[in-house]
Automatic annotation (TrEMBL):
Enzyme superclass (EC): transferase
Lineage of producing organism: Eukaryota, Metazoa, Chordata, Craniata, Vertebrata
GO CC terms: endoplasmic reticulum membrane; mitochondrial outer membrane
Membrane topology per record: Multi-pass membrane protein
Keyword terms: Acyltransferase, Endoplasmic reticulum, Lipid biosynthesis, Lipid metabolism, Membrane, Phospholipid biosynthesis, Phospholipid metabolism, Transferase, Transmembrane, Transmembrane helix
GO BP: any one term: phospholipid biosynthetic process
Alphabetical list of SUPFAM superfamilies matching this protein: Glycerol-3-phosphate (1)-acyltransferase
Entry protein name: 1-acyl-sn-glycerol-3-phosphate acyltransferase delta
Source organism (scientific name): Sinocyclocheilus rhinocerous
Transmembrane residue ranges: 12-31, 126-144, 308-330, 336-356
Length: 393
């Protein structure tokens, strides 16, 4: 193991990276807040400024993945589609299996120049996460409580707001609605069976409402759906802590560009279209399992230096004052100040650990698992399924 590799596993390095992320993030959140008065005067300018500010936060996680851990990202896609990436608005449909799929997605956004403006249909709980969740308010991210009756109005309104967005954007949808676990998969396949839908081996049954409403409301704004299937080589299940420790992974992403005007307008036809898409995605995963690659031509979209430069800027700006502060503290000789600072640092570390926890599948929600029972009752598709679930738990 080289000296650099050993350095990457050191707690001190992790603390410095997290400190830079947190402090720069809060400064940027504050700057975003300062753009509030601009919104009623020049909305498009406010949006453009927020895209740049947002970029300065999310690109730090991209730099961590690309430059710190050295993770490689390979794209399988048709050359004629490749030319259009980053030059049009698109809806991205992505499988949801990995703890760092959001960082990998962001890395592809960065490579095609749409990182600052990237959008997602995200669960509401993420909006409370400091730095990233707060940044998302200003980027007009669409939040949902995953309760359609409550979401319908807000999701439609937020989507409509994006119609005059001044930058090209990719709108990410994880139609499975939650990350893959064996337990959720089992339950979701029981739902599929009752609905007479073919079983999926590598995906949960997609929730169709978010997709249909997105297609409906962004028709005319978005030109294509990018059907994207992600995998990591050697059956790796990468984690954010692994990335922080400098572990190198290799992501493979298969993308098919599907023109939006080929997707049915009628809601039930659109839902059927999405179910068929997931059956095809399942076949691609099977192909990957068998051959170790996806179909299609391989390209490696080139690295850009901006994420690294942005990160170095914040490191230079924030690490020196930290060192001076710590030095002054030690020299002050006051036990009280030292204890207070230690408690403060500990609290910040716990906070960061909580944020990292948000990415961990083990600490994930029960959506599509325990909550499933009530949903099934509500939709009255399985009269006895609730009882059988109770038995299983
Ligand atoms: C060239 C490169 C290309 C690509 C690069 C890749 C990516 C880069 C792109 C962009 C990057 C941008 C950002 C990335 C950064 C961060 C992202 C991070 C994460 C955020 C992601 C999340 O938070 S995911 C969770 C939230 N999102 C969603 O849930 C979306 C999907 N959900 C829906 O669409 C839902 O319909 C809903 C949320 C709108 C409403 O939820 P609700 O639960 O009310 O759903 P439904 O009404 O649909 O559910 C009831 C129906 O479901 C059936 N049911 C019941 N139980 C189950 C079950 N266990 N499994 C499946 N189905 C079930 C039930 O029977 C009902 O059926 P109906 O027939 O009545 O519909
Ligand atoms: C640079 C060092 C950075 C260290 C700080 C850590 C930053 C933490 C960022 C938290 C951002 C969280 C984004 C997570 C996205 C995600 O994957 O959410 C899961 C949901 O889709 C589904 O949730 P679930 O139903 O629980 O599976």
């Amino acid at each position: 193991m080289g000296i650099l590799q050993v350095l990457k596993t050191q707690l001190l390095c992790h603390l410095i990276i997290c400190y830079v992320f947190l402090v720069s993030g809060l400064i940027i959140n504050l700057l975003q807040l300062c753009t509030l008065p601009l919104w009623p005067i020049n909305k498009q300018l406010a949006r453009k400024i927020n895209c740049r500010l947002g970029y300065s936060i999310s690109s730090q996680l991209v730099a961590l993945l690309e430059w710190w851990s050295g993770t490689e990202c390979t794209l399988y896609t048709a050359p004629e589609s490749y030319k259009l990436y980053g030059k049009e608005n698109a809806i991205v449909v992505l499988n949801h299996n990995f703890e760092i799929d959001f960082m990998t997605g962001w890395t592809f956004c960065e490579r095609f120049g749409v990182l600052g403006s990237s959008k997602v249909l995200a669960k509401k709980d993420l909006s409370y996460v400091p730095v990233i969740g707060w940044m998302w308010y200003f980027l007009e991210i669409v939040f949902c409580k995953r309760k359609w009756e409550e979401d319908r109005k807000t999701v439609v309104q937020s989507l409509r707001n994006l119609r005059d967005y001044p930058e090209n954007f990719w709108f990410l949808l994880h139609c499975e609605g939650t990350r893959f676990t064996e337990k959720k998969h089992k339950i979701s396949m029981e739902v599929a069976e009752k609905k007479g839908l073919p079983k999926l081996k590598y995906h949960l049954l997609p929730r169709t409402k978010g997709f249909c409403v997105t297609v409906q409301n962004l028709r005319g704004t978005v030109t294509a759906v990018y059907d994207s299937t992600l995998n990591f080589r050697n059956n790796e299940m990468p984690t954010l802590l692994g990335v922080l420790n400098g572990k190198k992974y290799h992501a493979d992403l298969y993308v098919r560009r599907i023109p939006l005007d080929t997707i049915p307008e009628d809601e039930s036809e659109c839902a059927a279209w999405l179910h068929k898409l997931y059956q095809e995605k399942d076949e691609f995963q099977e192909h990957y399992r068998q051959t170790g690659r996806f179909p299609g031509a391989i390209t490696s979209p080139p690295h850009r230096p901006w994420a690294l430069l942005n990160w170095l800027f914040w490191v230079c700006l924030l690490v020196y004052p930290l060192c001076m502060l710590l030095l002054q503290l030690l020299l002050s000789g006051s036990t009280f100040t030292v204890v207070c600072t230690s408690v403060f640092c500990l609290a910040v570390s716990v906070g960061i650990r909580w944020m990292i926890g948000q990415t961990e599948i083990d600490k994930g929600s029960n959506y599509g698992r325990d909550a499933n029972e009530q949903q099934l009752k509500d939709h009255a598709i399985l009269p006895n399924f609730g009882a059988s679930l109770k038995k299983n738990h």
